[in-house]
């Protein structure tokens, strides 16, 4: 783009037009925009001169690209800013090309350094924030507040082995907060609408949001967190809690607290900076907030399109990316309470040429922040305010980072939260998470188990998997068809309305033929259609689970639409598209039934077709030609049909029920045909080669075929028990606290199972611990009645156990307070965690602990109590909040057994059923005593 204001600069236009045509001759395609900024009284004369120059341009190439002449007086300022942002080069006609070549050297003059790097006083003695007593402290952190908070201590020479983060979200907005202060913020979609950048870099873990403090007298500069400008001698403390993270440090005689959270509904991140002057003298400080705008998926792709402005009404900084086809009308904003002393939207001028956030140029010059905003900049948001803090004085500064549909709604959010009772907002957040977590509270002899079951697993499931759909190692933003359905199974008691709504949401992503989108983006509906075979069956399985627990049969009659799209050819594994919404609708029951009907096709061995993956997406070539069969899917489909048939019988679907029951009989016979001598096969390739057989050299045994032979209840009891014994012998590494998915790992053998073989042996699904599948192993062991072993395996999966000591934490690396998706099993990385937070393992671990080991199950208004615990546990207690009524359940084990209920009393009245209590919602508190024996 060339900006021109005067006829005298026409020679520059001529040179650039010649250069434009020369580059076209070299096959470089681009558009050349000339912006006529001449005052309107003389504009026409310059306009005619420009048009004459363009007409005179010789056409010597047929390459693409064009010349456009635009009049500044005929386009809006916002459009001008957008033009400046998308232009790769912006030239000013008042400067010759020679001057432009020298301009880069003139832009970055060396500035006078006025930052002091070292403390000159005795404030070092005040450098350690006070710490609470910590449970399971491992040298890096431990639990506080009864296990509800994890406190990370980053001391001199230490940092966490990997980023230890918190995921904080409501339905439309959220952020990640690392213990060192890095992280990112998003709105609506954690991948597609990143407000600040998601790094996915566990080594450097760069910060996209930073808070600086500077003493205006000494010029000493420091940050509130360890991610940026870290003091190697200081101690930084981070508290990760349900719905908030709080950072603490003491530097230069100033105690600082940074408390971050999002309201329960609004799209705004509140950062409350509290400062306490401990230095004994009055201090003049500047507080500077920095955010690195993204407003898309990739900064390298989106930065050039971002424009910024200072809002006249609020003084906040607004950021737009009008080039984004989905979110172009939205506005992101940053605000520091309206008390702005300096600001900027230009990252380059803030950090300087080849500079960094550790030592920005803006703090080394007297004319630091000049308020640069608009287009064509390296976009960021910088807001600075100054304060005078007397000795022992305290002050709170509130920084807001948010997102809105338009500028008016952004202004509304800003003005609302400037005057809101932020303590009450935090209280509402705490109450929200307390309501989720207090649905079930346990007290057992295993304190680590208590901590996970009393909140962290439910928090991980809801915050990361359902609301954010993101973790440090994956920013998805999408719904996975089977993923959130399974997550919801753990949330039926605590969040029944949320589960209800998601079941209907998932059903709406079903094609009229019965198959479903494997994953989809909720804002656009774009997603993938695949030949993966298990997705659709999870709908019926999870609906049956929800109805059983909640008693809500009315959901089956709710009308839900379908999708339409061209059929996916067998030769294609998947197709990414935006399907159309069909005019056809049906009840949720019909959606489930159609999904099951679509799953009844079998191969030559009478087993379900595998397609391009069943539960294990990585086995995408086992059945890619339409002939491969899945043994695991046979077990699971049997379980899904068995769970759903009673619902169909109650609706009089006799023809379907008869068909399904006949299929169950044939399927049970075919599954027994997959017995390999000591365990069940995993699958058959398209050519009939068995997978998961002792005759192979790789993947001789797979855990989930064995566990689901038990969980489905259809296998021969003797064979199922023998298969699980083989799992214990071949797949459980007790010394490393690992339960492998399969062994030996895939490497070179044929046939090729799929992309699972692309993982190194022992990594993720390829022979590592895939915790989702490992938990099914624990479920199966508990179902078989071995409480000692079930608890031992469960305890081995607990991340607290993997991080008990500094040595273990260094090996495991991941957070001790959330469960990992996978753990590596091969040297030299044995015991190292793969990724955390965004895993379906959290929901399954919650269920295994409460339902299978502690034996607490709900069916409508019936409470079933059937524990499978270690024989050496003397007792345990469960507090269950069912609707509006509290049940305190004490289970005593005087005979030192693993299972078996001898008697039950409720409110001191004997219950005559063996292990079932009828609950009533009377807003009272009831006590239940269970005696095992």
Automatic annotation (TrEMBL):
Glycosyl hydrolase 94 supersandwich domain mapped to chain residues: 148-419
Domain Glycosyl hydrolase 94 catalytic positions: 433-855
Keywords: Glycosyltransferase, Transferase
InterPro entries, A to Z: 6-hairpin_glycosidase_sf (IPR008928), 6hp_glycosidase-like_sf (IPR012341), Gal_mutarotase_sf_dom (IPR011013), GH65_N (IPR037018), GH94_catalytic (IPR033432), GH94_Enzymes (IPR052047), GH94N_2_NdvB (IPR037824), Glyco_hydrolase_94_b-supersand (IPR010383)
Pfam families xref list: GH94_b-supersand, Glyco_hydro_94
Domain of life per record: Bacteria
GO molecular function: carbohydrate binding; glycosyltransferase activity
Record-given protein name: Cyclic beta-1,2-glucan synthase
Residue ranges the record marks as coiled coil: none
GO biological process: one example: carbohydrate metabolic process
EC class (word): transferase
UniProt-listed Enzyme Commission number(s): 2.4.1.-
